[in-house]
Specification:
This protein has 706 residues and is mainly alpha-helical. The chain is built from 31 helices and nine strands.
Length: 706
């Protein structure tokens, strides 16, 4: 195979694909490359120093194997990015295109400088083809991504910055320049070849470069050599520019993303615990530097793709909360303004005032994170549904930031909605957010006529295998008592030996924790853990997803290690084991609502559907279901806060109910007391209460068994 030529008559050298081939003074590249690398390392060092400003400790060096696996999988598969098919595939093409180009460049450079590997035969074909095709798909990716951003212009990309366009243009210019260099090389080689055999292999090894070569077929050999050398140096300049600007632009996500993949929360079902809370001097986060290093890293990792914004129910319904803009980017802007002064130790910044607006601006050191940067209105709008984190391709931890700022507002500033204060008072006095007398917690058993079916502890003095944690809604919400009754009857029918704490049970603490009152949460959780252990309850059944998540995932932080089941997954198991059998089928169509704390927080999607389908009902899913499910509006403690429809938008629960009503189903199936309340109100607001019923999964199953 003809691969290379010696200098030919006329004194010209044949352009070749390898780095620096036949380029006069090409060795200067290895000198010049230290300049962009210097910028790269300097910029990286500056950002590293900013992350070290974090005052709150965080250790993410556990489970090294899982973390390395997470880094490898998410980096090279781009799995998170692919959740949005078109943009994801194009980003994947861009990523792997650059990977192939990097491999090819390194291989050809090694061959050119040290003769290894020997770039002939199948190896040349492979590397050349990978670089060629990879570069093409990378260019295609840039074109499609630019089309999405600037032509289609979805709302999630509504915060364009001039640098975004320049970055896309730079990357495209690098890729296009590479093909121009390759086309000029092949065109020159065609002119030098005396037989078709001498250049035929290039058509296979570099198909895109071959097509570019025909653009220059009318040029003279001298012109081809000259323009090849000029384009080669231009290409190198752009590549070096790319390297130099990485830490100072959106391109920085290339590195922060990989760090984030390694350091992400591997089990993001629990919010951070305030340890030794009795001795804590401050609570939550009041200043940007009080965040963890991961929180500050997240601000750099955000690529402003808007997927968090797109899936946020608060933003969807016109609230001030926008996870991308009013939380992450607002914090990043504040950090970038404040960090230089913190690093220099300046007491206050020296502002160069050039206008009245600038003169009246709040300085970065004086700005309040909680009032000037991320406002209370933004913080209280969050439902903790976790849709933002679920769809973020960079594993940014939005919820921890919001909850930590809520903690400061509640426990340090004493600034909270009046409804939240009322819920806290109720929890302190009667151990439930409704404020109903704690001594009546077990009265629902008599009201529903099921006292004889329940082993009430310690009154009945009987052994039990499972503990039924009913939760506050079962005890005090008149509508949800029916769901509790259905579950009790189902457990009894299946022969499950279970106990119930009654008046010794307290709220799981989830509303308090999510609203920012960590002290109250820990008080309630500690009591429940102690009580569970007192009675030897190591297997617990919860009907409320909020209680399920708290006891299963968050009590672990306080040495409360229990085997916890949600009622829907427990019933699905009983059906599969043949311990529950349907006697009459439900020949109806149902739409199923995924509660956030059972679905996204815990990944339980199929068991509730299996229970409903076992009755013969047809379950109709909508686009916004499972991981794309839409919140009912009650999470994050918002069950106990007021919500107003603003700017022509609906309340979150009305918006969600409208989505479910579009199926035409006569029943909306739910698995959560909070969701049931919100959806029932939504059905009434829509005037559909005569046609559509909202039922708990337990009720649906019991109707087919009794």
């Amino acid at each position: 195979m003809i691969f290379a030529y010696k200098p030919f008559t006329g004194g010209h050298d044949v352009p070749m694909r390898v780095v620096g081939a036949n380029i006069p003074y090409e060795w200067l590249v290895y000198v010049f490359m230290f300049i962009p690398l210097g910028f790269l390392f300097y910029g990286a060092y500056r950002r590293f120093r900013v992350w070290r400003l974090a005052q709150s400790g965080l250790h993410r060096n556990d489970q090294v194997g899982r973390r390395v696996a997470s880094w490898l999988f998410n980096t090279f598969s781009q799995a998170q990015v692919l959740r949005k098919p078109l943009a994801g595939v194009m980003h994947l093409a861009l990523f792997w295109g650059f990977i192939f180009l990097l491999i090819a460049t390194a291989a050809f450079a090694a061959w050119e400088r040290i003769g290894f590997p020997e770039m002939t035969g199948w190896l040349y074909y492979l590397i050349s083809w990978l670089a060629d095709v990879g570069g093409f798909f990378a260019m295609l990716g840039i074109v499609v991504l630019a089309f999405i951003r600037y032509i289609r212009r979805p709302d999630r990309l509504n915060d364009h910055k001039p640098a975004d366009g320049w970055i896309l243009a730079l990357v495209f210019a690098i890729l296009l320049g590479g093909f121009l260099v390759e086309g000029l090389r092949i065109a020159a080689q065609i002119k030098l070849s005396t037989t078709l055999q001498q250049i035929a292999y290039e058509q296979d090894a570099s198909p895109v470069g071959w097509m570019f070569a025909w653009l220059f077929k009318s040029m003279s050999l001298d012109g081809l050599v000259l323009w090849h050398r000029l384009s080669w140096w231009s290409h190198m300049f752009l590549a070096f520019l790319f390297i130099a600007v990485v830490p100072f632009t959106k391109l920085w996500h290339i590195f922060t993303g990989m760090i984030g993949y390694y350091s992400r929360d591997l089990d993001p079902k629990a919010v951070p615990l305030i340890e030794n809370i009795e001795e804590a001097e401050r609570f939550g986060v009041e200043r940007i530097e009080e965040n963890t290093w991961k929180d500050l890293l997240d601000l750099d990792a955000c690529i402003r793709c808007g997927r968090c914004q797109e899936n946020c129910p608060a933003y969807y319904t016109g609230k001030k909360l926008n996870p991308k803009v009013t939380v992450i980017q607002a914090m990043k802007k504040h950090l970038d303004g404040k960090a230089p002064h913190l690093l220099s130790g300046a007491a206050r910044p020296e502002l160069a005032m050039t206008s009245d607006a600038e003169a009246n601006a709040v300085s970065p050191l004086e700005a309040s994170l909680l009032y000037d940067v991320v406002t209370p209105e933004v913080l209280w709008a969050c439902t903790n549904c976790r849709a933002c984190q679920e769809h973020c391709p960079m594993f940014i931890e939005h919820l921890n930031k919001i909850i930590n700022m809520r903690r400061n507002l509640v426990m340090w500033q004493g600034d909270m909605p009046a409804e939240a204060q009322n819920a806290f008072t109720n929890l302190e006095r009667n151990y439930n957010p409704w404020g109903v007398g704690w001594a009546s917690r077990a009265n629902w058993l008599e009201e529903r006529g099921i006292r004889n079916l329940v082993n009430l502890l310690p009154e009945d003095h009987r052994e039990f295998e499972y503990l039924l944690y009913g939760g506050c809604a079962v005890a005090f919400d008149d509508r949800y008592k029916r769901a509790g009754e259905a579950l009790v009857r189902l457990l009894d029918r299946a022969g499950i030996n279970f106990g119930y704490l009654g008046n010794e049970e307290r709220c799981c603490g989830d509303p308090a924790r999510r609203l920012g009152n960590e002290y109250l949460y820990q008080t309630l959780a500690a009591h429940n853990i102690e009580t569970f252990k007192k009675y030897g309850a190591d297997k617990i059944i919860c009907i409320c997803p909020h209680g399920y998540n708290a006891i299963k995932n968050e009590y672990l932080q306080m040495e409360g290690d229990f085997e916890v089941y949600h009622s829907s997954e427990f019933l699905a198991r009983l059906i599969a084991e043949g311990r529950l059998s349907v006697n009459k089928t439900e020949a109806v169509t149902m739409s199923y609502h995924d509660s956030c704390f059972l679905g996204r927080h815990n990944g339980i999607y199929e068991p509730p559907r299996q229970v409903v389908k076992s009755t013969g009902a047809q379950v109709v899913d909508i686009d916004k279901s499972r991981r794309f499910g839409f919140c009912c509006g009650a999470g994050g403690g918002r069950m106990f806060l007021e919500e107003e429809a603003v700017g022509g938008f609906k309340r979150i629960n009305d918006a969600r109910t409208g989505q479910l009503l579009q199926t035409g189903a006569g029943v909306i199936a739910s698995n959560c007391p909070f969701c049931m309340t919100m959806l029932t109100d939504g059905v009434k607001e829509a005037g559909e209460e005569e046609r559509v019923k909202v039922l708990d999964v337990c009720e649906i199953l019991w109707r087919s068994i009794e």
